[in-house]
Design goal:
8-stranded mixed sheet; 22 helices
Length: 710
C-alpha cells in the first residue's frame, strides 16, 4: 500500500484503518491525516518516573526497571487460559510478573535482560507482583519518558490511536503539504519551535521541556488563528442594515418593575436605545455577573422592538432557562399588551405548528425558545430584534443562522462572564460591549470561606444544618468520574508553561462524591449533573433541583450558567485550587439568589502552601467585584478560563470555536501577542492572500457548524 503524501488524505487511507475504524474516527471529527495530528493527547503516562519496587505507591501505576531473574514458565489452566510467569528484581526486592494468554512472551525475557515495566505493583508475602505490565527493553536507545493518552470514543483503543498516529507523523515528515504556516519572523520573535517539531513532541515527547515548547507553539497557533478570524469578522467595512426603532420610551415598562433600575442598567439601556433608533443593526453584548440584571435590559430592548411594530426572538441555551425567561417576560410584558410565545423541543408537533403560525402571521410579538428557533418553519413576519442569552453557549454558526432567519434585525447578546476589558476587545472585537458592574439593591453578599480536608466533618454538619432549615446545596467537582485504571498520570492541564508538573491532590468526581454523599445523608435526596449527560437528562436533574425535590446537587461546572434557585444557599467547591478566579466567582453567583443567607465554601489543601493557588483562594474571600476578579484572573492564570467556558460542558466563551489546547493556556501575554501579530499580518494582507497556509487554518477554525436543532 502506497504511503499517502498529503495531510488532506482521508483517514481511511492509513494502513490498517478500515471502514469501521474510519467511521469511528468520524464520530470524533477526525476525517483526514491532518485532523488526526490535531487529536492531541489529554495527558500522559509518566513512564520516565522510574522507582524502586519498594518505593512504588499502592493501587497506582508505576514504572520500574527490573532485571529478569528466572526463565519464563508457561502454565495451562483448565479453562484453556495460559499464564507466562517469571521473576525479575531490582536492588529493593524481587517481583513475580504474570501475563495472560500471551504464550509467545516466553521467548521475550531472557535471563539477565533489563526491561522497564509499567503497571500496578502489588505487595505479596514473598515480595512484589505485577500483572500484565507494559514492557520496554532497556537498550542503546533511550526510552521515552512520557507516553500519550488520547481522548477515546467507543470502538477505539489507545493502541490503535498510537499506531495510526505514528503513521500520521511519518506522513507529516515527508509530505509536501506540511509547510509551517507561521511566518519565520514571528517564530523568531517569540522563540517558537517549528510546527513539525511541535507535532512530533506533543504526541511523542522526548522530555518535559520539549513538551512545553510544543505546547507553547501549538497554543500560539490556535490563539493566532482565532485572533485572525475574529479580527477579520469584526471588520466593519459594510454595516448591516436594520429597521430603525425610533420610539424608545420605556417609562410604562419601568413603572411595572418592583424596583428602580441601577445606574449600570440605565447606561446599558441607553446604549440599546441609541443603537436601535438607527437604521444600522445593533450588534451589542451585555456582560455582567450572574444576577446583575441583564434580563431587564433585554426586556427593555424587546419592548422597544414591539412598540415600533417589530417582533423579537430570544434564544436560551437550555429548555429550563427558556422556560424561566418565558415565565418572567410573559408576566411582565403581558401587562403591556405584548403577546409572548414559547418554542422548545418538548412541545408537540401541533403546538409547534401553532406557534409557527402565530409568528408568521404577526399575531405573536415575542418568541422565547431554544435551538428550536433555528428549525425550518420558524419565520417572523416583522423581525426586528434577536436576543441570545448566555451567548458563549451558541456556536458562530448558530448565531449566524438566527441572524439570517431574521434579516434587518438588531442583535443583542448577553454573557454572565465579567470578562476583562483587554480580553473583551480581543475576543469580541466585532461587538459593542456594555458592562453591568453593580448588583441590584438587596442582593446579599455570599460569605466565602476557604478550608482544607480537616474540615470535612464540620462541613457535612453544615450541609445538614442548611437543608434542615429549608435550604439546598450545590457541590461542584472538577471531574466527572473517578480516574480510570488506564487513565493518564498527568493531564495536559497539569503541566505548566515551563514543563513542570503542577502539584495537586486527587480530584473529587461528581459521580463518586454523589454516591458517597447519598450514603452519608440517606435522609436527603442527592443527585448529580455533568456535561456528558444528554440534554434531556440534564434538564430533568435541574428541574428536580429547582422544584426542591433534590436537596444536594453534585455537579461539574456545567451549573455555572443556569437557572434561578432561590432556596440554594450553600455552594461547596471541591479541589477549588483547580479552578480559576472567574470560574469560582461564577459558581459563587449560583447561590444568594433568594432571601436566605448564603455561603460559599472553597475546599482545598492548597491553603496550607504558599503560592498562586492559595493567593487565588484568598482573593475569593476578600473580593466580590466580578470585573476586578476577572482582571486578576487574566494576570494570574492566563486566558484559559475565558476560552474554556463551562468546563466539561465543552462550550466556549469565544462563541462556539472549538479549541484543542488553548484552554490550558496559563500565559496571558501569549494571547495579547497573538492579537498583536494578527493585527500586523492583516494590515499587510487584509485577506491573508500573502499567507495562504494561515488563511486555510482560519477558514477551518471558523467553518460554520450549524449542527442539529430540536
Amino acid at each position: 500500500m502506497a504511503i499517502p503524501n498529503s495531510l488532506d488524505t482521508g483517514i481511511g487511507k492509513l494502513y490498517g484503518v478500515g471502514k469501521v475504524r474510519e467511521a469511528t474516527y468520524a464520530r470524533m471529527g477526525v476525517y483526514t491525516v491532518g485532523d488526526l495530528l490535531c487529536h492531541y493527547p489529554r495527558g500522559y503516562e509518566n513512564r520516565g518516573d522510574v522507582r524502586l519496587l519498594a518505593d512504588t505507591p499502592d493501587s497506582v501505576k508505576s514504572a520500574v526497571v527490573l532485571t529478569v531473574a528466572t526463565e519464563p514458565r508457561v502454565a495451562r489452566l483448565k479453562n484453556r487460559m495460559t499464564l507466562v510467569k517469571f521473576k525479575a528484581y531490582d536492588e529493593s526486592g524481587f517481583c513475580e510478573i504474570t501475563y495472560f494468554n500471551q504464550e509467545y512472551l516466553k521467548n521475550v525475557f531472557p535471563i539477565g535482560s533489563e526491561f522497564r515495566f509499567y503497571g500496578k505493583v502489588q505487595r505479596t508475602k514473598n515480595g512484589y507482583a505485577m500483572s500484565s505490565p507494559v514492557y520496554e527493553p532497556i537498550g542503546d536507545t533511550e526510552l521515552a519518558p512520557l507516553f500519550p493518552v488520547y481522548p477515546l470514543t467507543e470502538g477505539l483503543t489507545q493502541k490503535q490511536i498510537a499506531k495510526d498516529m505514528r503513521s500520521a507523523l511519518t506522513i507529516a515528515q515527508y509530505t509536501d503539504g506540511g509547510e509551517d504556516p507561521l511566518p519565520e519572523h514571528i517564530r523568531a520573535k517569540y522563540s517558537l519551535c517549528v510546527r513539525s517539531f511541535a507535532q512530533k513532541q506533543i504526541h511523542a515527547p522526548d522530555s518535559f521541556s520539549s513538551l512545553a515548547a510544543a505546547r507553547k507553539r501549538l497554543i500560539f497557533d490556535e490563539l493566532l488563528t482565532f485572533a485572525l478570524g475574529v479580527s477579520m469578522s469584526g471588520t466593519k467595512t459594510a454595516p448591516t442594515p436594520a429597521v430603525p426603532c425610533p420610539d424608545t420610551d420605556i417609562s410604562a415598562l419601568e413603572r411595572l418593575l418592583p424596583y428602580e433600575l441601577t445606574d449600570a442598567q440605565k447606561r446599558v439601556i441607553a446604549d440599546v436605545k441609541r443603537d436601535m433608533s438607527h437604521d444600522v443593526a445593533m450588534n451589542r453584548m451585555v456582560v455582567g455577573d450572574v444576577g446583575c440584571g441583564k434580563t431587564v435590559c433585554a426586556a427593555a430592548a424587546i419592548y422597544i422592538a414591539v412598540k415600533n411594530g417589530r417582533q423579537a426572538a430570544l434564544m436560551a441555551p437550555t429548555e429550563i432557562l427558556a422556560l424561566q425567561h418565558y415565565g418572567d417576560l410573559k408576566e411582565l410584558l403581558g401587562k403591556l399588551g405584548v403577546r409572548v410565545e414559547l418554542l422548545v423541543g418538548s412541545l408537540t408537533a401541533a403546538q409547534k405548528r401553532k406557534v409557527h403560525s402565530l409568528l408568521a402571521s404577526g399575531e405573536a410579538d415575542v418568541v422565547i425558545g431554544t435551538q428550536a428557533l433555528l428549525s425550518e418553519g420558524v419565520e417572523l413576519a416583522r423581525a426586528g430584534l434577536v436576543v441570545a442569552d448566555e451567548q458563549h453557549r451558541f456556536g458562530v454558526g448558530q448565531r449566524a443562522v438566527l441572524a439570517e432567519k431574521n434579516a434587518l434585525s438588531h442583535m443583542l447578546v448577553m454573557s454572565a462572564t465579567p470578562i476583562p476589558r483587554s480580553l473583551a476587545l480581543a475576543i469580541y472585537g466585532n461587538l459593542d460591549v456594555s458592562r453591568i458592574d453593580t448588583l441590584p439593591p438587596g442582593r446579599q453578599r455570599v460569605d466565602t470561606f476557604a478550608v482544607d480536608e480537616s474540615y470535612r466533618a464540620r462541613l457535612n454538619a453544615f450541609i445538614a444544618k442548611q437543608i434542615e432549615s429549608g435550604g439546598q446545596v450545590y457541590i461542584v467537582c472538577p471531574a466527572v468520574e473517578d480516574r480510570l485504571e488506564d487513565d493518564a498520570d498527568i493531564l495536559m492541564g497539569d503541566i505548566d508553561g515551563e514543563g513542570r508538573i503542577k502539584d495537586g491532590t486527587p480530584l473529587k468526581s461528581a459521580v463518586g462524591l454523589a454516591t458517597e454523599l447519598a450514603e452519608i445523608f440517606p435522609q436527603y435526596s442527592v443527585d448529580f449533573l455533568h456535561g456528558k449527560m444528554k440534554s434531556k437528562e440534564k434538564d430533568s436533574v435541574m428541574r428536580r433541583f429547582c422544584d426542591g425535590a433534590t436537596k444536594i446537587l453534585v455537579s461539574t461546572t456545567v451549573i455555572e450558567v443556569g437557572v434561578n434557585v432561590p432556596e440554594a444557599c450553600l455552594m461547596i467547591v471541591e479541589n477549588a485550587d483547580r479552578f480559576g478566579l472567574s470560574q469560582l466567582h461564577q459558581l459563587r453567583g449560583r447561590v444568594g439568589r433568594g432571601k436566605r443567607k448564603s455561603y460559599c465554601v472553597l475546599v482545598s489543601d492548597a491553603i496550607n502552601v504558599e503560592g498562586r493557588a492559595k493567593e487565588r483562594l484568598m482573593t475569593m474571600k476578600s473580593c466580590y467585584d466580578g470585573f476586578e476578579i476577572a482582571e486578576k484572573d487574566l494576570v494570574m492564570r492566563g486566558p484559559g478560563d475565558f476560552l474554556r467556558g463551562s468546563g466539561d460542558d465543552t462550550v466556549r466563551q469565544s462563541g462556539g470555536v472549538k479549541f484543542k489546547l488553548a484552554e490550558v493556556c496559563d500565559d496571558a501575554s501569549l494571547m495579547r501577542s497573538a492579537f498583536d501579530e494578527a493585527k500586523e499580518l492583516l494590515s499587510a494582507s487584509p485577506a491573508l492572500e500573502k499567507y495562504p497556509a494561515l488563511c486555510r487554518e482560519v477558514n477551518k477554525m471558523f467553518t460554520l457548524q450549524k449542527g442539529t436543532v430540536n
